[in-house]
Design goal:
alpha/beta; Rossmann fold; GMP Synthetase, Chain A, domain 3; 9-stranded mixed β-sheet; 7-stranded mixed β-sheet
Length: about 550
């Protein structure tokens, strides 16, 4: 016997339709590539998204066709999010921070038909276009800002606003199977070729509803959220869907992500919430400290992408009275998997115990099941001590990559191996101790590179730090610390290593410290460990250790 309830498919277009009807004047504010401030609202976004669907039809885009974007966080990119998926095509967000060969591979692998591109990427597009089979490139600008670039014969160069001006807005959003593909996002490809993750309408809606829970993002119509996390990577953590669903205002920074630009935009537009990776927040923190400025309305920052150093939690909370929310996820989990929200027993913590808890990535949000397992696949206890391979499953977790057979990325019970090593304590709070490829195995024992990095970051003269495994004649691998000193500060090997006193076992101490001017970063702002491992793998053996 089935329940006697209406059975409407979950459509991405329903989010923007709801926002336009129930929160029509909620602001959507964008800092454009040109540096101007553009203002609209959800009613305007929904209307133009319908006009965009007409544009796409005239460009020959049909069911399940892939439409690529090379775009910053802004109103036109938001219109593409809804216009492309809403009409039944697939919105393929391409990460412009990847190298040209990877971008070319991704566009060809996805078989994209049309590319929508910001003018700031015009040179990049001119380079990659001859190696693709794109039919057209649409510059996301007004006619007066069209760049002069050369495309291969047969590939049209078009202007977004010219196309929009000729499109009517009478398009009616269709309904179809909610399991239909809606969005395509590729991994960063740090250990091989990027892999595509194909989200459905159903998974995207469920993820948006889950992250709007009170113990996750908990957005409200009174919030004004600025997603620093880019729309070209994991759908800006679902914020472009969660915010309209709650009626919260969206503030888009475009390409202006330096500390000074973010501070001004946040204060000018009275931002209450934001979300991004630690690298961005480190730049913001350094600007605030150097300038003496403050964030007058920001109440909470969500930090994910990589582990948040303790010093960042202490600085934002202690110096600026801004709550730090730690989260974890990945492209394959849409992305949110855990969120560090308080429990009655953790809310009462103080001092060192509280900070130690806040360093963890949090409990699985409703809809995500997780476990840690040994290499044989056997589940390990949730005691905060046992370390194992983190496995997840849920309604917005990938079961295969683009071009692969369904369920090929999971085991027979539906568990997806994240590639992270983690512990889970008695409260269900998970802590990433390492990536499986980054963990250091010294004499057969594991050493957490993340723990060592976070301690190094607490040194007042360290700007950035990374730990990698270096080959060792006796122990196979030993930790090597690579640090970037703060400007005008002098660091010594002994001075840096002193920060570890009484914080870790002595056998965890890095065997050496390397001072560098900068660290390499991935296209998503994380430290590029593969580059560092390749560069410093033989550092200790060359030194005769």
């Amino acid at each position: 016997m089935f329940g006697l309830m209406q059975d409407r498919p979950l459509m991405i277009s329903q989010i923007i339709t709801y926002a336009a009807r129930n929160h029509p004047r909620a602001a959507v504010i964008s800092k454009t590539v040109e540096g101007d401030i553009h203002r609209t609202d959800y009613a305007g976004i929904e209307r133009r998204a319908r006009g965009l669907a007409r544009v796409l039809q005239r460009l020959g885009i049909g069911d399940a066709d892939r439409v690529a974007t090379l775009g910053w966080n802004g109103f036109r990119h938001l219109e593409l999010y809804y216009g492309v998926s809403g009409m039944g095509a697939i919105c393929h967000t391409v990460n412009p921070r990847l190298g040209a060969p990877d971008i070319t591979f991704i566009i060809n692998d996805a078989a994209d038909s049309v590319l929508f591109c910001e003018t700031s990427f015009a040179g990049l597009v001119e380079t990659i276009a001859p190696e693709t089979k794109l039919r057209a490139v649409v510059m996301m600008c007004a006619p007066e800002h069209m760049p002069a670039i050369t495309l291969p014969p047969g590939m049209d160069l078009l202007c977004y606003e010219t196309l929009m001006a000729a499109a009517d807005e009478t398009y009616a959003w269709p309904e179809f199977d909610e399991r239909k593909a809606a969005l395509l996002c590729y991994t960063s490809g740090t250990t091989g070729k990027p892999k595509g993750v194909l989200y459905s309408h159903r998974s995207t809606i469920l993820h948006a509803m889950a992250i709007n829970a009170a113990d996750v993002f908990g957005l409200r119509a009174t919030d004004r959220i600025l997603p620093v996390v880019p729309m070209f990577h994991v759908n800006a953590w679902g914020i472009p869907y969660a915010a309209p669903a709650a009626g919260a205002a969206l503030i888009f920074p475009g390409r202006h992500l330096d500390g000074a630009s973010l501070t001004k935009l946040m204060n000018d537009e009275k931002v209450t919430r934001s979300a991004g990776v630690p690298t961005i927040w480190l730049g913001l923190l350094n600007h605030l400290r150097a300038s003496g400025e403050r964030l007058h309305t920001v109440k909470r920052l969500v930090i994910g992408g990589s582990a948040c150093p303790r010093m960042m939690i202490e600085a934002f909370e202690g110096e600026y009275n801004i709550q730090i929310d730690h989260a974890w996820g990945m492209t394959e989990t849409s992305p949110l998997g855990t969120f560090n929200a308080p429990l009655p027993e953790t809310d009462a913590l103080s001092g060192e115990a509280r900070l130690r808890h806040l360093e963890k990535q949090g409990r699985g949000i409703f809809g995500i099941d997780m476990k840690i397992a040994n290499d044989a696949g056997e589940s390990l206890p949730w005691d905060g001590v046992a370390q194992g391979n983190l496995m997840v499953r849920g309604a917005w977790v990938a079961n295969a990559y683009w071009g692969q057979e369904p369920d090929s990325a999971c085991d027979t019970a539906g568990w997806f191996a994240t590639g992270d090593v983690a512990t889970i304590d008695e409260t269900g709070t998970m802590e990433i101790t390492d990536r499986s490829k980054d963990v250091i195995k010294s004499g057969g024992e594991w050493i957490s590179s993340i723990t060592l990095e976070n301690i190094a970051m607490s040194h007042p003269d360290v700007l950035e730090a990374a730990i990698v495994a270096a080959s060792h004649s006796k122990w196979a691998e030993r930790p090597l610390l690579i640090v970037v000193p703060r400007p005008d500060r002098e660091l010594t090997r002994e001075g840096v290593l002193a920060i570890y006193k009484d914080k870790v076992p002595t056998w965890w101490l890095p065997d050496d410290v390397v001072m560098v001017d900068e660290l390499p970063h991935t296209a998503t702002g994380k430290i590029h460990k593969l580059t560092l491992r390749n560069r410093y793998r033989e550092h200790l053996t060359r030194a005769g250790r």
